[in-house]
Design brief:
This protein is an alpha/beta fold and 783 residues long. The protein is 27% helix and 19% strand. The radius of gyration is 27 Å and the shape is globular. The chain starts with 12 loop residues before the first helix and ends with a strand. It comes from Streptomyces anandii. This is Glycoside hydrolase family 3 N-terminal domain-containing protein. Keywords: Hydrolase, Signal.
Length: 783
């Protein structure tokens, strides 16, 4: 057994790592700064563009004699039985440890955006569906399960969550985001981080920062965000997930802002992230992003210069495989082109994290998961139960004007649409069957994914259900319209199941690299819906999508409309449960639903001139606002009151004064006045009538989901602090300004129920990283 100080778990981690670094050669230190993607194909169709060009051949046996920083996607590259995969990973780790002088294994990382991206693992709803739940506690529970499954097979780091705030819904990766509001993204994303980290898995925040603000909604396009948009919309979710969630890793974005790629921006990755926010974990590159500094951004002449720029900016680990941080970097250091201190800085951060994970300890292998313990179940009944609850809570009832829903149990139903009988209609592009499984058609999906058609037949066994596809998801043929119209005309109600096919880089209508020119329904699905509505039979529109689509064309013409954002493997039963009435819908929109397909980009966070007005013939007002969602029961909000620092009560037209460092509590009672149990979501918005810079007309600063039995009531209190009104002022610093404010308790961004009017008094107050980031709530039963 080694007696070296770096092996002594009783010593502080910093002392252990300092001792270890002093013993390492330059090549051994750089070996800690890259991953290897040993399972990635170097010919044929890979997962992503540039994969073949970037995956350089390497001599594995020779490479690992120097040690290794990371192992890339042992489970997420090709279908592998989880038990066999765990054994293979454990063997690879022992080989790495045995080959190097120091016996240190690699950090194994995997994707885990909508569940562990592995064959046979639970496919949970996508993040946009998490946002629709407005339920951080349930998201945290899901993430803890994902983390435990990953650790059970030897994975240390998860590349999730995505904290990009939607700025243009035409962007292909909207399905991977949590929504269009930074407070919602921050609170839900932070809950995910807490859950994943609670299982001992390193959460990786991505994509830092600005990726979703790319021009024209094009993947990897330059970011046109201004300094205030960047500071007040893009950055807050990351700050919250670091400060409150404890995320231990950050992934730099592919994009460039104002001419500077994020992967080469020391002001972002060092100045802001580390010096201002105090982050001490690891910064990893998005896949191939270090080499992209040369090949795509053209700010570097060769791999060595790419490495120098990325290291100086603050990227500690090159992923997914060695390209720039290997021999090119070693040669650049030896010739004096790159200071060795940059290598030492990055290696120290990597080794500190390995120390946290127990990978520097002598007994790391004995404390690793037992790969010989037998079968591995990554899709347990408990997992599926959580996936079902998430899916059910995420379904949004957009409209039900005539009470067509719930469907009668013995009715004649014509199910029409290209998404009704396809299991993949439930999954986003980072679920294993969509992400990797489509490249291996010979393999089964590995998990049970009921289709909506099958689930609806199970929900309503006495109903007469017919089905026809009507059209393809993205095709141009209308040859199936005639049969679809016939089936609808023969039925009492038509359920039109339309939406997206998720995929990667043009292989879908939604997903990474699948950006769209407008928000028309894909292909000829809009025409199919027109034909069905024209029959006169009530049409229930069910959307299974990765983004919102323009629905104004059918406003007032549908019997009902239901929105589900890729609800995962249990999504079929969840949506069918809403249609049958077994599930009372409670989801709320995390993104606005536009009225028309053009006039984009648009999200609800708009200053006055971003709203409808006489200066433009384009009206951007959405058909369904952020936060909107219906129910099969009714709720009333009553007994509204507010209390300031001095105990003054304010409501209605009263104006209460609090200091620019003061607080104000708002309370109301929510009562279920209907005949069945259900959940309501009370949302708190801030309106700032006058400020030194233009502000969004309203923005979310708090929310509370509350579940109530028939007749039950609960009292909800929001504890607002003036810090939540802060914004980036003319000075470039975040400030709280004196003046008038309105706090609006609302059922959506546009459906205000109660208003409290405040006046902030005192001086302008500059706030920093110690400011309050969230609005706490208290819920108690009412007698």
């Amino acid at each position: 057994m080694s007696t070296a100080p770096w092996r002594d778990p009783a010593l502080p981690a910093a002392a252990r790592v300092d001792d270890l670094l002093s013993r390492m050669t330059l090549q051994e230190k750089t070996a800690q700064l890259y991953g290897v993607w040993v399972g990635a194909a170097t010919d044929g169709d890979g997962v992503a563009p540039h994969q073949q060009a970037m995956n350089t051949d390497c001599d594995w046996e020779e490479l690992i004699t120097l040690g290794l920083g990371q192992l890339t996607r042992s489970f997420g590259t090709a279908p592998v039985d989880p038990a066999l995969g765990a054994q293979a990973l454990a063997l690879a780790q022992r080989r790495i440890a045995e080959a190097g002088r120091f016996g240190i294994p690699a950090v194994a990382h995997e994707e885990c955006l909508a569940g562990f991206t592995a064959w046979g693992a639970t496919a949970y709803p996508v993040p946009l569906a998490w946002g629709a739940t407005f339920d951080p506690g349930l998201v945290e529970e899901m993430a803890a399960r994902i983390g435990r499954d990953m650790r059970s097979v030897g994975v240390h780091q998860g590349l999730a969550p995505v904290l990009d705030v939607v700025r243009d819904p035409r962007w292909g990766r909207v399905e991977e985001t949590i929504g269009e509001d930074p407070y919602l993204v921050g609170t839900i994303g932070t809950a995910y981080v807490r859950g994943l980290e609670s299982a001992g898995v390193v959460a990786t925040l991505k994509h830092f920062a600005g990726y979703a603000s790319s021009a024209g909604a094009r993947n990897l396009a330059p970011v046109r965000a201004g300094t205030r948009e960047f500071a007040d919309i893009t950055l807050p979710p990351f700050e919250m997930a670091l400060r409150e969630g404890g995320a231990r890793s950050v992934m730099a974005a592919y994009t460039e802002t104002d001419g500077v790629p994020a992967s080469a921006d020391p002001r972002l990755l060092t100045g802001l992230l580390r010096e201002e926010w105090g982050f001490t974990g690891t910064v990893v590159a998005d896949y191939f992003a270090v080499d992209f500094l040369q090949t795509l951004h053209r700010v570097a002449a060769d791999p060595a210069q790419s490495a120098a720029l990325a290291l100086e900016a603050g990227i500690d680990v090159e992923l997914p495989t060695v390209k720039c941080y290997g021999n090119d970097l070693v040669d650049a250091v030896r010739t004096g082109k790159v200071p060795e201190s940059l290598v030492d800085r990055a290696a120290r951060r990597v080794l500190l994290q390995k120390c946290e994970l127990g990978l520097l300890d002598e007994d790391w292998d004995r404390r690793a998961p037992d790969a010989a313990a037998g079968p591995v179940d990554l899709d347990s009944p408990a997992n599926r139960a959580v996936a079902r609850r998430l899916a059910e809570e995420s379904v949004v009832l957009l409209a039900n004007p005539d009470g067509v829903l719930p469907l009668a149990p013995d009715t004649r139903i014509a199910v029409v649409g290209p998404r009704a009988a396809d299991a993949l209609a439930m999954l986003g592009c980072y679920s294993f069957p969509s992400h990797v499984g489509t490249l291996h058609p010979e393999m089964e999906t590995g998990i049970e994914i009921p289709t909506l058609l099958d689930a609806l037949r199970g929900e309503l066994p006495d109903a007469k259900v017919t089905f026809t596809e009507g059209c393809e998801v993205s095709g141009s043929s209308t040859s199936g319209f005639e049969e679809a119209v016939t089936r609808a005309s023969e039925a009492d109600v038509c359920v039109a199941v339309l939406g997206d096919r998720s995929g990667l880089f043009g292989r879908g209508t939604s997903g990474e690299g699948c950006d769209v020119a407008d928000l028309e329904l894909p292909g000829v699905q809009g025409g199919l819906l027109d034909a069905l509505v024209a029959t006169g039979v009530p049409v229930v529109l069910v959307l299974l999508t990765g983004r919102p689509y323009a629905l104004g064309r059918w406003d007032g013409r549908l019997g009902a409309a239901v929105q589900a954002f890729f609800p995962g493997e249990e999504g079929g039963p969840a949506v069918a449960g809403v249609l049958s009435g077994r599930v009372n819908p409670s989801g709320r929109l995390p993104v606005s639903v536009p009225r028309g397909p053009g006039g984009q980009p648009w999200t609800y966070l708009q200053p006055p001139l971003g709203l409808a007005g006489e200066v433009s013939s384009l009206d951007p007002t959405p058909l369904y606002a952020f936060g909107h969602g219906g129910s099969y029961t009714t709720f009333v909000w009553e007994d509204f009151s507010g209390f300031g620092d001095s105990g003054d009560c304010g409501a209605g037209n009263d104006v209460i004064e609090i200091g620019t460092d003061g607080a104000y509590d708002l309370s109301l009672t929510v009562r279920n006045t209907g005949g069945r149990e259900g959940a309501d979501v009370v949302q708190l918005y801030l309106h700032d009538p006058v400020a030194s810079v233009t502000r969004p007309d309203v923005r979310l600063v708090g929310y509370q989901r509350v579940h109530l039995a028939p007749g039950e009531a609960k009292r909800i209190t929001f504890r607002f602090h003036a810090d939540l009104s802060a914004f980036t002022g003319l000075s470039g610093r975040r400030v709280v300004e004196p003046g008038a404010l309105e706090l609006r308790l609302a059922a959506s961004a546009t459906e205000v129920r109660h208003t409290a009017r405040l006046t902030l008094t005192g001086p302008v107050r500059t706030v920093g990283t110690d400011r309050r980031l969230r609005c706490p709530t208290e819920v108690r039963p009412e007698g």
